[in-house]
Specification:
The protein has 908 residues and is mostly helical. 62% of the residues lie in helices and 4% in strands. Among the domains are: 227 residues, no CATH class; 218 residues, Rossmann fold, CATH 3.40.50; 82 residues. The protein is built from 44 helices and seven strands. Helix 17 links the parallel strand 3 and strand 4. Helix 5 runs antiparallel to helix 6, helix 13 crosses helix 16 and helix 20 packs across helix 21. It comes from Colletotrichum asianum. This is NACHT domain-containing protein.
Length: 908
């Protein structure tokens, strides 16, 4: 084996040994705290994944290395195989420790191991690990000795060739490490000083390998921590905010005049001066649609910001971070956790060496278990944020837009930000919100500005340039400049500082110019348009062409259906969740190409299985046509902001939050009339299937794979929603999408594992596509390997019932044991439901019970099941609605009580 391959393989083996030794060390255990404490199933799963990763890495390196005829390769291969067997043995042991229905917790992995191994066995394992490490040292010394002897025999200029060989080895191990020079010098001295110096050389090589492995591991842990702070849509809201129109908002960096702007009162606080002052916070406020978010994006992008901030803090580096709350986004985009994760991610990536100090418990957790997939808690994030801001060797400037779009207590958030930003003169924050009383009370004594007091000139500039781009209006300006100018002045005055209003009105005027309107027609059109946004939206939709009304209504219904409370649905518990659709709207990942399929019969999506991949030309044609329909049927209230760059995969959304509020809360819902035969959720499921068939990306097509992931997330969300409505209409669509996804992303490829593989190897070797698109499954239920498993874990009961009724045999599922244990962990409600479905039997459950108390609960579960069956029977009998409601209520109450007892006992 060549030196480079030998050292690479040796380094990987050392990393594996170091990790395993740390697991069983007597001195290693987690510090107990409210958030981080005891070794449970999640930690065991994390250890298993890390061991599998180490084992897989050394296997790949061993297979890829040229073995040759030397003893070095054979010896390393022997050690490698022994370490792999050790990992496999530990993984099997961990699988035995993972019992979802067990309340056992341990202080360390060693303690967990002692529950199934003898203390002497653990001690023997530690000795074996140390022996393997020493064997690697000996093999490496032999390899180096062999290389040096060969070089000495082949040439008289041995010093030059030895240096070349050592440099080659060092380039593989760690080119820029601090110990490189010392290693070379020690090796040279060993040639002249005899065998005794060779031992020192060996110790240095061994220590260097360990140090290099630790340094590499620390860098990996830093990257993983940063990646865990980052969430999928961390920049999505920022990218959706329109770029400021040319030459607008320039006044923000200018000195204010001594008189109130444009005759308004009071004058604004100097933003330019605030940047270099000791004032902590600046508040930007204004009417809905006045351009607050556009201004905040303008500030974060403008090159003049950093130089002015450097004038504020001349001697220390300034770190700038921003966050844009979004009420129509995902839970992370409207939550306080999303705010801190985003700000921490943007700042800490500039100094990752501080991560162990900022997240000590999470760092220790990673050192012990190798990987930490748990979600971030508010207390952990806020502690890290406070600790980061306490560092006075750095300055921080934060831009936080849309505080009024927070999903939570705005008063608590403003208080938190004021406390955080007041930790020292090295911190500043610029925030924006609507002029709600909660913000006025909190920020009344802070420097501020009101958008509508400053945007009249910007609005005039915007209206002038947009209208004069039209050849008919440009000609009107030349022929009757006074009338053209008066029209623009009327637009600016009527806008009252609301940019969104003028954007829609200018579009309406341009439509009139397209249709040949004269100046008096344009003025009449302007007079007919209401001055407030809600009335304007209603007017625009009322004036739609009658032939477009049905299509328009369907488009709006599908877009609204795509805004489901994704976070509430994907909670990961095997129980019915109260969906808070009114307050927890989720961002839509609806793409333009998906929307282009909504006019087609949804049932044909199940029949047209021969539909092939669409070429880029056909995709582009459909997308362009759909975009034109949005413009003509939706009057600009829906937008595709990234069409020029992303084309058919562009995302469709409301023009502004005020449009969403109008359609869903402000009376615009009357426009969303539902035809009896039109179900937007089913139509969307069918459209997503057609979209997935059309693109069929390969693994190396990153853009296509990202689109497919969004399609699958949106699709599973719709299935969950229909399940919560007790509708099984989604089942055939789910089965069809599963076929498509497995064909693209891979799947189990059979019902049973081959006889020469373990169940664990089989399940983990063929991850189901749902593990790639559902974070909960990837984190909490990684054993999911087929659609049936996913349906059980995620409570898709309609699908499970359908499968069992058509002869599905659970005995052929290698995950039968896992599914049984999983549902037992999640309470009596799941047990009762699965007893009724026939997935598990009371005998199986009692076989896992420990004590009479558990048997009592099982009997209650069986009783609940009998009630549920009786209720189904009663549904076919002529009982009154009142009797049925009473029976349902009693059943739910019984389940709730038993579930509570399970929860309390698990906490104890």
């Amino acid at each position: 084996m060549d030196p480079a391959s030998a050292f690479g393989l040796a380094a990987s083996i050392v990393q594996t040994i170091t990790f395993t030794s740390g697991l069983i060390s007597k001195s290693r255990q987690l510090h107990h705290s409210a958030q981080r404490g005891l070794v449970e199933n999640e930690e065991l799963a994390s250890i298993a994944r890390t061991l599998q990763s180490h084992s897989r890495r050394i296997t790949i390196q061993l297979v890829g290395a040229p073995m040759g005829k030397d003893d070095v390769g054979k010896n390393l291969a022997t050690i490698c195989n022994r370490v792999r067997d050790l990992c496999k043995n530990l993984i099997c042991t961990i699988e035995g420790l993972q019992k979802p229905d067990s309340a056992t917790r341990w202080d360390s992995f060693r303690q967990a191991l002692r529950s199934v191994w003898k203390e002497q066995d653990i001690a023997d394992l530690a000795q074996r690990l140390e022996r393997y490490r020493r064997q690697i040292d000996s093999v490496l010394l032999a390899s180096m000795k062999e290389q040096l002897e060969t070089l000495t025999k082949e040439t008289r200029d041995r010093n030059q060739q030895i240096e070349q060989s050592l440099n080659k080895i060092l380039a593989i191990v760690e080119p820029k490490s601090r110990w490189q020079a010392e290693l070379v010098q020690t090796a040279r001295r060993s040639l002249d000083s005899g065998p005794s110096e060779g031992l020192a050389y060996l110790d240095l090589v061994s220590a260097s390998l360990s140090a290099g492995a630790k340094e590499e591991r620390d860098k990996l842990m830093q990257r993983r921590t940063l990646e865990s702070l980052k969430f999928a849509d961390i920049r999505d809201r920022y990218e959706r905010i329109p770029v400021a129109h040319r030459k607008t908002f320039e006044w923000i960096f200018s000195e204010p005049s001594t008189s109130p702007p444009e005759g308004r009162n009071p004058p604004w606080d100097n933003f330019h001066g605030w940047l270099t002052s000791d004032e902590v916070l600046y508040w930007v406020t204004g009417k809905p649609g006045s351009g607050k978010s556009t201004l905040m994006k303008f500030l974060s992008d403008d090159a003049r910001l950093r130089p002015q901030l450097e004038g504020w803090q001349k001697d220390i580096p300034v770190h700038i971070a921003s966050f844009f709350f979004w009420n129509s986004g995902t839970m992370m985009q409207m939550s306080r956790e999303g705010l801190l994760q985003s700000l921490l991610h943007q700042t800490i990536r500039n100094f990752p060496q501080d991560i162990p100090r900022l997240f000590p418990e999470r760092w220790e957790y990673q050192e012990l278990f190798g990987y930490d997939s748990r979600p971030w808690s508010w207390s952990e994030l806020s502690q890290a944020f406070t600790e980061m801001l306490s560092d006075k060797t750095k300055a921080f400037f934060f831009i936080v837009d849309g505080l009024d779009e927070l999903d939570g207590d705005c008063s608590e958030m403003t208080s938190y930000l004021l406390r955080a930003f007041s930790q020292g003169p090295h911190i500043k924050g610029c925030v924006s919100s609507r002029p709600w009383l909660v913000f006025e009370d909190s920020f009344r004594r802070k420097p501020s500005l009101k958008m509508e007091d400053f945007t009249k000139k910007d609005i005039t500039l915007f209206a002038t340039e947009k209208l004069t781009e039209n050849t008919m209006f440009a000609q009107l300006q030349r022929l009757d400049g006074k009338s053209a100018g008066a029209l623009i002045d009327e637009v600016s005055e009527k806008a009252s500082g609301v940019f969104l209003w003028v954007t829609l009105v200018v579009k309406s005027l341009l439509e009139g110019l397209r249709d040949g309107d004269k100046i008096q027609d344009l003025r009449s059109r302007l007079e007919d348009l209401p001055p407030d946004l809600q009335s304007l939206f209603r007017k625009l939709l009322k004036d739609l062409e009658p032939s477009y009304f049905q299509q328009s209504s369907r488009i709006f219904q599908v877009v609204r259906a795509s805004h489901l409370p994704r976070a509430s649905i994907a909670v990961g518990e095997y129980k019915s969740i109260e969906v808070k659709g009114d307050t927890h709207e989720a961002w839509s990942s609806l793409r333009l190409l998906s929307l282009s399929f909504i006019d087609e019969d949804p049932e044909e999506a199940l029949l047209n299985v021969s539909q092939g991949t669409m070429g880029s030309d056909e995709q582009g044609y459909r997308a362009k046509g759909m975009r034109r329909q949005l413009q003509s049927r939706c009057k600009g209230l829906l937008e595709v902001p990234t069409f020029s760059t992303t084309g058919p995969e562009s995302k469709v959304d409301y023009l502004h939050r005020t449009v969403k509020d109008f359609l869903e809360e402000g009376g615009g819902g009357d426009f969303l009339t539902t035809e009896d035969s039109f179900d937007p959720h089913v139509v969307l499921c069918a459209a997503l299937i057609r979209h997935a068939r059309a693109i069929r990306p390969t693994e190396d097509d990153m853009t296509g794979m990202e689109s497919l992931a969004d399609i699958l997330r949106e699709f599973t969300t719709q299935c969950h929603w229909l399940e919560r409505q007790n509708r099984d209409v989604y089942v055939p669509y789910l089965e069809e999408m599963n076929k498509i996804a497995e064909a693209i992303l891979g799947g189990p490829g059979g019902d049973k594992p081959p006889p020469d593989s373990s169940q664990t190897d089989w399940v983990f070797s063929f991850p189901h596509w749902t593990r790639r698109v559902d974070p909960y499954v990837g984190r909490k239920a990684a054993r999911v390997w087929c659609l049936f498993d996913y349906a059980v874990v995620r409570s898709l009961t309609q699908y499970v019932r359908r499968q069992l009724s058509t002869g599905y045999s659970l005995k052929d599922n290698p995950n039968h044991k896992f599914l049984t244990e999983y549902v037992l962990e999640h309470g009596t409600q799941a047990v009762a439901e699965l007893l009724d479905l026939g997935i598990i039997t009371s005998k199986e459950i009692k076989g896992k019970s420990s004590g009479n108390e558990k048997d009592v609960e099982i009997e209650k579960a069986e009783g609940s099941t009998r009630e549920m069956r009786s209720e189904k029977t009663a549904a076919h009998n002529p009982t009154t609605k009142r009797e049925k409601d009473w029976s349902t209520s009693r059943f739910r109450h019984s389940i709730h009580q038993v579930s509570q007892r399970f929860s309390l006992r698990r906490k104890k």
